[in-house]
Amino acid sequence: MALQITTLAERPELGSVLWNMDHTWPQFMLNDPIADLFYAIADTIYPEYVLVADDDGEPGRLVARACMIPYRADGAELPDDGWDGVIRRGWLARERGERPDAVSALEISVRRDLQGKGLSSIMLGAMRDHAARLGFDELVAPVRPNRKHLEPRTPMTEYAYRTREDGLPHDAWLRVHVRAGGKIVKVAPRSMVVAGTPAEWRKWTGLPFDRTGVVEVPGALSPVHCHVEHDYAVYVEPNVWVSHPLRPLPA
Prior knowledge:
Number of strands: 9
Order of helices and strands: EHEEHEHEHHEHEEE
Helix content: 10-25%
Shape: globular
Number of domains: 1
CATH superfamily: Gcn5-related N-acetyltransferase (GNAT)
CATH class: Alpha Beta
CATH topology: Aminopeptidase
Mean pLDDT: 96
Radius of gyration: 18 Å
Oligomer: single chain
Distance between the termini: 26 Å
């Protein structure tokens, strides 16, 4: 595989297939309303911040994508509302005509049939390099640990700092970030919020959602809180803030 990684600005023809790539995101995660402030306009407003990868064997068919968003930090510490927070801040900066002073990763997605081949690490490296070329000295990332869903009741404050004997993070995706030069900074306790009726959650998950209480949902990093009497269920996902210091690269 001869991987070609470019920006969507360089390959605008890939905008039509950007979201068609077979992925492993749980259905419920596609229903965070804040996401529309980036994803609905990514190909027109943020193409310079979207990396796309294909290969010479299947030109035009995505192998992976990586998305970032510039936002206004004003020197504040990384926000507790993580993923939702940087998207909202990025949207507000654009609406107000403010110059972004920070950039955050939003996702790295690899085509389902190519997962486990080290492409996520390659895309992370490409994202770091591209952020440096854009003039940023730091790339931050509200990381979604890829094994946390196996322990939904374990607090993220415990899980995020669990290490192996070699001192590297227990979680494989956090380990990739640390090996790439990232540093775990803090937990973002309410990084993504997805709210819906029990009927909507039944559609998204295939689970009954017919009793009040916490519901463990496959793929969720924490339990969903269901209130049948009030006709809603809410998922609050914690992520882990990782900081990647960058070296300036030529544009």
